[in-house]
Each structure stands twice: as C-alpha cells, then as structure tokens.
Amino acid sequence: MATTSKQYKAIGEDIWKSRTEKTNTELFALTYGALVVQLIQDYEDYAEVNKQLEKMGYNIGTRLIEDFLARSAIGRCADFRDVGEVVAKVGFKAFLNITPTVTHAAAVPTSPSRTSATSNANASGASFTLTLDDNPLAEFVELPEDALEGGLWFSNVLCGVLRGSLEMIQMQVQATFTSDVLRGDETTEIRVTLVKYLEEEVPVGDD
Length: 207
Hints:
By secondary structure, this protein is of the alpha+beta class. It is 48% helix and 14% strand. The protein has seven helices and four strands; from the N terminus they run H-H-H-H-E-H-E-H-H-E-E.
C-alpha cells in the first residue's frame, strides 16, 4: 500500500521529535554564516564559493542518507514524484525542522506516443520544486551588494546535500536554486531534476 503525503509528514515529525541531538537553530545559522564568509575570503570568487558549498553539501549528503534511511525505515519510492514528497516532508523535517512546499513536474514526452503518468514521473527530466517558507541557514543574513552582483547562492550547501543523498540511492539529479529571498526574490526555491537512474554497482569479484 502506497504511503500518503500525510503519512510522510507524520514520519518526518516523529523523527524530529525523537532526535536527542537537536541543533540550536541560532548557533547553526551563525556557524554556517561564518563558513560562507570564510569561503568568500579564501576564494574571492562567488561562483567558486557556490561550487565549494555544493561540494561540501554533496559530501554531507552521502553520509546523511544512511542516518535518514535508518531513522525513517522508508522503503523504495514508487517514482520520482514520491521522492519529492519524501524529501520535503520527511528529509527536511527530520534534519532542519521545516517542511517545504513541493511542486511536481513530469518529464515532457519525447515522442507523441502515449506514456503512462508513472513512466513520465520516472523519466529523465522529471522534476520537483521545493519552496522554502523558512530557511534556517539564512537566519540573520543580509547579503551585501557585491554578493548579489556576484551571484552568490548563500544556501547552496542544500543543493549538494540533495544531490549527494539521492546519488547514494541510485538517482543522479541536478539540484539548483532558482530563487532566493536573500537576493530579493519573492520566494526561496530549489529545483531538483532527475538526470537518470544509476545502475547498482556490483563489488569486484561478485557476479
């Protein structure tokens, strides 16, 4: 029986409530802010800072997924749409205590032949957008003019976390910020697009 959106939300809330090592939100935001400032000083190039934040997030994501799977006990998702629901309602809630709004977009069919909704939801190009009404990383933050002009995505570590964690469960995705209130946009949104499903690697010596 498929898990409903409401059930996913309940799972995320239960995981958050059961965490004994909750991070102080204010301390977390200030620590992350200090990290971004240090990267800006080290690289003096906002495009490179974006890359480094994404890379750091990727490394975090590859490790975070094990903890997530152990705590949530969620099985394999039915399709990429289901992945979006789990990411928003369980993943973000469990680790950041926020629940982004998730909007789904199926892949555009490459041929006029009929395809099922499920196959479109699993096809390369299928995507979902996460709208963050709250962003713990951006508390107390106001970007200077040069950072805005330089194209800094302050919370780009989140894109890396999404890419790294999903890659560990055989999904290659692109995760990018499309808007950020810190940059004067009305909303903060991350688009996650499915590139392809990865083949599970067989260890050397195993057939």
